[in-house]
TrEMBL record:
It comes from Phaffia rhodozyma. GO terms for biological process: pheromone-dependent signal transduction involved in conjugation with cellular fusion. The keyword Ubl conjugation does not apply. One of its GO terms (cellular component) is plasma membrane. Its main location: membrane. Belongs to the G-protein coupled receptor 4 family. The keyword Transmembrane applies. Keywords: G-protein coupled receptor, Membrane, Pheromone response, Receptor, Transducer, Transmembrane, Transmembrane helix. The gene is STE3. The chain crosses the membrane at residues 44-74, 95-118, 160-178. InterPro entries: GPCR_STE3. One of its GO terms (molecular function) is mating-type factor pheromone receptor activity. The lineage of its organism: Eukaryota, Fungi, Dikarya, Basidiomycota, Agaricomycotina. It is found in: Membrane. This is Pheromone receptor.
Length: 208
């Protein structure tokens, strides 16, 4: 299980790193009122290497999530007994949270991924050789917001890439960071922090 988790974490990110460098025109862009942004040359290989794999993962997640929700609704009277037959930590509450995450993932991941690939396909650039693509690799290009305001689709795409990760983090925490075990852990951690601060305060300012 450990090496499986390591492979899941390292292999996809390494492949994305290699593909990103192959279609990286220069170091990065600086967009006004946004910050740093990757300088991806939107050619065919960039679309296939960077935008299509998330679509495939989202489609697989959509199918698996759909089957999970369908089976839950079709056999909801039996699922508690099925869970009790297996010696695992999965209970009805956790199972329902997983179903909720699957439903949210179905609603968000695939539509956003399709939007990204359609939007970037409209701006498809010609494919150049390695030398031509990387000849000014040390360049840091600055882009004014006025240029993006003239292209509403580009500004929407940039904001979408910025806020989807944040939204996903809040959704994940809402499902798995607010249940009973997590809340008790938060309370225990908070009590330890307040006790440590109280001890430091008394040592610094308290009277003997």
């Amino acid at each position: 299980a450990f090496w499986s988790d390591v492979a899941i974490c390292l292999l996809p990110t390494t492949l994305v790193l290699i593909v990103s460098y192959c279609v990286q025109a220069h170091r990065y862009n600086i967009v006004e009122n946004f910050g740093c942004f990757p300088a991806t040359w939107l050619e065919l290989y960039a679309i296939l290497g960077l935008f299509v794999p998330p679509i495939l993962c989202a489609a697989g997640s959509f199918i698996c999530g759909g089957f999970a929700i369908y089976n839950f609704l079709a056999q909801r009277r039996r699922f508690q007994a099925v869970l009790q037959q297996h010696s695992s930590s999965l209970n009805s509450s956790r199972f329902l949270r997983l179903i909720g995450v699957a439903a949210v993932d179905m609603v968000l991941s695939l539509p956003f991924g399709i939007y990204e690939i359609i939007h970037n396909s409209y701006n498809l650039q010609p494919t150049y050789s390695w030398a031509d693509l990387h000849h000014s690799f040390d360049l840091v290009q600055e882009t004014d917001q006025s240029i993006l305001n003239a292209q509403p689709g580009s500004w929407a795409s940039i904001n979408l890439s910025r806020w989807t990760t944040t939204l996903a983090a809040f959704i994940y925490f809402a499902f798995f960071g607010m249940h009973e075990d997590a809340l008790s852990f938060h309370a225990s951690t908070w009590n330890k922090i307040t006790a440590a601060f109280s001890y430091i305060w008394l040592r610094a300012f308290g009277t003997s």
